[in-house]
Amino acid sequence: MIRAVVFDVGECLVDETREYGTWADWLGVPRHTFAAMFGAVIAQGRDYRETFQEFRPGFDLTEEREKRAAAGKPEWFGEDDLYADVRPTLAALREAGLWVGIAGNQTVRAGGLLRGLDLPSDLIATSDDWGASKPDVKFFDRVIEATPAEPGEILYVGDRLDNDIRPAVQAGLLTALIRRGPWGTIQQRDPDADSITTMRIDSLAELPEKIVKFNADRPGFHSSAGFRWVRSGIDAGQRVAASGTG
């Protein structure tokens, strides 16, 4: 049964089109050229950061982030960069009684931006906060530690098989693969997209109904009550302590 849902950030909650466009501007290359190279690097199974190396050998992403910030052009995203289904879905899941978390490979700065959006969630955490990054299974160990549910009761939602789904499965979590963004599109025909995922979705809006169906045959579920019952075993004090956000 699913008691908690934890979301990846980039291309799951946040449309990164503008952000990568600003990186193309920073590098001084046309945006469509950067996007084409980005897709080629992903399709070849390489680390997306190698895209920068194609245009500027020796490129240090951490150093360049600092340079951008010093130049008054820091990485940034806001309300307009959220996918349209994000707020309604997170709100619906919480209203229905599920514990909702957000955890992805993001900088401390990005974590602050996320918290500033006041999204309906019980937890917001980043890889920089935890000192562990996907696809390292240690990242998902931290997800498990922070979530008031057993590993097999946590659904991790992400757009990448390599960074999100495979390591989450290895850690014992349930998974939902969303088909959007570069990785979600390029990796959609990989056999693992069907064989190892708990569910596949094209929109976050599909989650509430799919979770209800998944839980329907589990002991303790009563369709007349929806799935509000899932919070019944979660102590409120533990929930607040785990979130750190209230």
Question: Can you tell me about this structure?
Answer:
The structure is a single chain. With 246 residues, the protein is an alpha/beta fold. 45% of the residues lie in helices and 11% in strands. It has helices spanning 17-27, 31-43, 50-55, 61-70, 86-96, 108-116, 127-130, 137-146, 161-170, 181-186, 192-195, 207-215, 236-243; strands at 4-7, 99-104, 123-126, 154-158, 174-178, 199-201. It has a six-stranded parallel beta sheet, sandwiched between helices. Helix 6 links the parallel strand 2 and strand 3 (123-126). Helix 1 (17-27) packs across helix 2.
Structure annotation, total helices: 13
Give the termini separation. 25 Å
Sheet with most strands: strand arrangement: 3-2-1-4-5-6
List the uncertain runs: 223-246
Computed CA radius of gyration, to the nearest angstrom: 18 Å
What is the chain-wise order of helices and strands?
A: EHHHHHEHEHHEHEHHEHH
Range of helix content:
40-55%
State the shape.
Answer: globular
Strand tally: 6
**Describe the biggest sheet?**
6 strands, parallel
Mean pLDDT: 91
How large is the share of residues in beta strands?
A: 5-15%
SS-based class = alpha/beta
Features:
single chain; 246 residues; alpha/beta; 6-stranded parallel β-sheet; 11% strand; disordered C terminus
What layout of secondary structure does this protein have?
Blueprint: E1 4-7, H1 17-27, H2 31-43, H3 50-55, H4 61-70, H5 86-96, E2 99-104, H6 108-116, E3 123-126, H7 127-130, H8 137-146, E4 154-158, H9 161-170, E5 174-178, H10 181-186, H11 192-195, E6 199-201, H12 207-215, H13 236-243
Parallel strand pairs: 1-2, 1-4, 2-3, 4-5, 5-6
